[in-house]
Design brief:
CATH topology of the largest domain in chain A: Rossmann fold
Helix content of chain A: 40-55%
Distance between the termini of chain B: 86 Å
Radius of gyration of chain A: 21 Å
Structural class of chain A: alpha/beta
Oligomer: heterodimer
Shape of chain B: elongated
Helix content of chain B: 55-70%
Strand content of chain A: 15-25%
Strand order of the largest sheet of chain A: 2-5-8-1-9
Number of helices of chain A: 14
CATH superfamily of the largest domain in chain A: P-loop containing nucleotide triphosphate hydrolases
Chain lengths: ~325, ~500
């Protein structure tokens, strides 16, 4: 087992600060989004970014790729995009001797950081091609399975408006995203800064400050952060309390939730909470970590019912109520 | 474990003790105070000190139970510290991983200690202390309140007023007339009459019940003394019975028949016959019949032995030699002695004994009749007083010989008190003391007295009237049943 040293803890904080600084060069504001994306990347989770066009989703992911000096690929999802366009396919080629042979030509998914832009525009068939790779970090073509290099992350974006010609992601795929982050419209001051910045150059200026190996080391370090039973039980209760079928679930769940989050949510909560605690300079997970991360982790995993819609409650409102009742 | 954490733990323990003590004092004070209040108001049947002891007990038990109830584990304390001082679960995690090792865990412990060091234990105030203090004050107030209430328990209630009624005056006056008109021996009659007159005078002056009680108790004691001083039969009978000699006990049985029962000559005669039989030789089965000389010798021995035993019993009875019954019994003994000395033949001696017994029974009748009248008058007076006033009737003195009667010669026990069938006579039937109206005189008399009168009338009518044998038998059976009823009422 790799030894945890004070030095590694210091490096962790230092690297995170550097990444945040570099990203701030290209992305104005969105500090919470950046914070959570970094958590997801260290945790090895995929992120679904949702926001109206032009709020900097794609730019954030591109800047992130540069900062981390990781191979980056972008897939623009369209209705006519085929699974093989994502995963790659076998092609027949002549070798040096002029003999025909089948050769696998990897698709854009074979990268460390994949931007799945407007993922809900692809057909379910193509979306499903992402399932295996997102969860197991491997691709199966025919009888062959190809492993993807670690670290591997999918950062998908989707547009909450313009729903015509889109295919909402199925629950199974949604569950593969660790976080769903809502990218809000910038404030006037932030918008002014964006305009000023882009007048100078449109290209990202962020520099690489961290590499894949370091990310994996940080992941290992974070996994050692202690969590006391009470906090872990709180996380477990929070997730199980999203299930309206449970007898002792909170009243809000019974009233507003159609179905609840999967066990992956509880796993993700604890994993992400450990990283958040370290990023916050703490060596233990606190209730506040769980509460803060409950929103990005649960909002795409629970489905609210018509009663919530009727009362104009968002998923986040319902989550807030469940947290309150779980405490 | 962190020293800082232990400091907080110590603080929590102190708070726990303080809370338990306050709760114990509150509950004990409240319980004790209420019990004390009720006790001092005489609403509870125990003294104030017991009330305070109950309060102390309740307080002690409550304090112990509360101390156990407030037990706080390290985990709970850590949770409390994290929550109260917003330590972001640092202390809880430190406690949860205290046995595990690792650099990250060391860093975590350090961060928890740093966080704890920034908190002064003084800031760790006791939660809801005001509730405990309020409860304590209520408890103290209850005890003080209980102590301030005047103790009604120790206050003696004023004596109940008393004023003699006309009916009671008339009752005592009638009783005086009854005593004066009785044939009781004069010395005792005067004493009882004087006691009753004195009692009447005292009761007329008495204004409270205790005064009445004193006067009545004194009068009752005087009358009781006179009553039993006036009859020596009980002492003589007891002494004879205690001798455990067949002849002395037989004589006691004979006396008992005529002393403590109605002088029932039919019964007396039966007992007399039985007693006479004691002197007759009864050969055992297979034993050769002794000759005339031997029989005389045996009888003489019996007589000597009987004389000796009865004489000893008379001495032990401590009755004055001038007592009439003492003289009668002594005379009979002397006669026995004479018979024993001069016995010419067995038959002649037996005839002399029979004659002596017949003579003695005649003399004895006169003596014991007077003694019986003395006793009856005294006991009737006491019974009547007990019905007129709320005073207990003193127990009537009776020779209790039941523990010694296992060697008795006769079938009847000396203390058998019911009349036997066929007895006729005057006066009270022993045992029944219910007062009933006597239609012949218009006075209230004891039921036993009345039933004897009825019995005499019944016998007279049956002897002189024209009744068939069947009717006579039926009437006699009815009266037998009445007698057996008296015996049952008397608890036999």
């Amino acid at each position: 087992m790799e030894e945890i040293t004070m030095e590694k803890v210091s490096i962790f904080s230092e690297k995170i600060s550097k990444v945040q600084m570099e990203l701030a060069k290209d992305v104005v504001g969105q500090k919470d989004i950046i914070h959570n994306v970094i958590i997801a990347i260290i945790a090895g989770g995929n992120v679904l970014l949702e926001g109206v066009p032009g709020v900097g989703k794609t730019r954030l992911v591109r800047a992130l790729g540069k900062t981390m000096s990781l191979p980056f690929s972008r897939i623009q999802f369209t209705p006519d995009l085929m699974p093989s366009d994502v995963t790659g396919t076998n092609v027949i080629e002549k070798d040096e001797n002029g003999k025909l042979e089948t050769k696998f030509r990897p698709g854009p998914i074979f990268s460390n950081l994949v931007l799945a832009d407007e993922i809900n525009r692809a057909t379910p068939k193509t979306q499903s091609a992402m399932l295996e790779v997102m969860q197991e970090h491997k691709v199966t073509i025919g009888k062959s399975t190809y492993k993807i290099k670690e670290p591997f992350f999918v950062l998908a974006t989707q547009n909450p408006i313009e729903q015509d010609g889109t295919y909402p992601l199925p629950e199974a795929q949604m569950d593969r995203f660790l976080f769903k982050l809502i990218v809000d419209y910038p404030t006037n001051q932030e918008l002014m800064d964006i305009v000023k910045m882009t007048q100078i150059t449109m290209a990202e200026t962020a520099e690489a400050v961290i590499n894949g190996t370091e990310i994996l080391e940080m992941r290992t370090l974070a996994s050692k952060v202690p969590v006391c039973d009470e906090v872990m039980m709180f996380a477990v209760n929070l997730v199980s309390n999203t299930h309206p079928a449970l007898e002792n679930c909170p009243a809000s769940t019974k009233k507003y939730v159609k179905y609840g989050a999967s066990p992956r949510a509880a796993q993700g909560l604890i994993t992400a909470a450990k990283i958040r605690a370290l990023m916050d300079g703490r060596y233990n997970v606190a209730y506040e970590d769980i509460e803060a991360l409950a929103f990005p982790i649960l909002r795409h995993r629970i489905k609210i019912n018509y009663a919530a819609v009727n009362e104009k409650l968002s998923v986040d409102d319902v989550i807030a109520k469940i947290i309150k009742e779980t405490k | 474990m962190s020293k800082l954490f232990l400091k907080f733990k110590q603080k929590v323990k102190k708070a726990r003790i303080l809370k338990s003590v306050l709760t114990g004092l509150a509950s004990g004070g409240l319980t004790g105070g209420i019990a004390l209040l009720l006790s001092r108001l005489a609403l509870l049947p125990f003294p104030p000190i017991i009330a305070l002891a109950i309060g102390f007990g309740v307080g002690l038990v409550t304090a112990i139970l509360f101390f156990l109830f407030l037990r706080t584990s390290d985990k709970q304390l850590a949770e409390s510290l994290d929550e109260r001082f917003v330590l972001q679960e640092k202390v809880q995690t430190m406690i949860a991983y205290e046995t595990e090792q690792g650099e990250l865990l060391d860093l975590q412990r350090q961060s928890a200690e740093d966080a704890l060091s920034k908190i002064s234990t003084k800031k760790f105030k006791i939660k809801r202390l005001w509730i405990y203090l309020t409860a304590f004050c209520i408890g103290v107030t209850a005890v003080v309140g209980g102590l301030l209430v005047p103790n009604k328990r120790n206050q003696t209630p004023p004596p109940k007023p008393f004023a003699i009624t006309q009916m009671q005056i008339a009752g005592i006056e009638e009783l005086i007339r009854y005593v004066d008109g009785s044939t009781m021996e004069e010395t005792y009659r005067t004493q009882i009459s004087d006691s009753l007159s004195g009692l009447l005078a005292d009761l007329k002056l008495a204004t409270t019940e205790p005064e009445m009680q004193v006067a009545l108790t004194e009068a009752m004691a005087n009358i009781s003394t006179c009553t039993y001083d006036s009859s020596s039969s009980a002492e003589i009978l007891t002494a004879l019975w205690a001798s455990e000699d067949t002849y002395a006990k037989g004589f006691a049985t004979l006396l008992n028949t005529s002393t403590w029962k109605e002088p029932n000559w039919g019964d007396f005669a039966e007992k007399l016959t039985e007693y006479k039989q004691l002197f007759r030789y009864q050969p055992a089965e297979g034993e050769p019949t002794p000759d005339a000389t031997e029989l005389v010798e045996i009888l003489t021995q019996k007589l000597d032995f009987s004389v000796l035993k009865i004489n000893v019993a008379l001495q032990q009875s401590r009755i004055a030699q001038t007592d009439s019954l003492y003289i009668t019994v002594a005379q009979f003994v002397t006669q026995q002695q004479e018979i024993a000395k001069n016995a010419a033949s067995y038959e002649a001696a037996l005839a002399s004994i029979d004659k002596a017994l017949d003579d003695a029974s005649q003399t004895t009748y006169g003596v014991i009749s007077q003694l019986k009248i003395n006793t009856n008058v005294g006991e009737y007076t006491m019974t009547k007083l007990a019905t007129l006033f709320p005073v207990p009737l003193p127990p009537f003195e009776r020779p209790d010989l039941t523990e010694q009667n296992n060697q008795g010669a006769g079938e009847d026990r000396p203390n058998d008190k019911g009349p036997s069938d066929g007895g006729i006579g005057e006066g009270a039937t022993f045992g029944s003391k219910d007062l009933v109206l006597d239609p012949l005189t218009g006075n209230y008399v004891e039921y036993g007295t009345l039933i004897n009168k009825y019995y005499a009338v019944m016998n007279d009518r049956l002897n002189n009237g024209n009744y068939s044998d069947e009717q006579k038998e039926l009437i006699k059976k009815y009266f037998s049943l009445l007698y057996s009823g008296i015996e049952k009422e008397d608890g036999k």
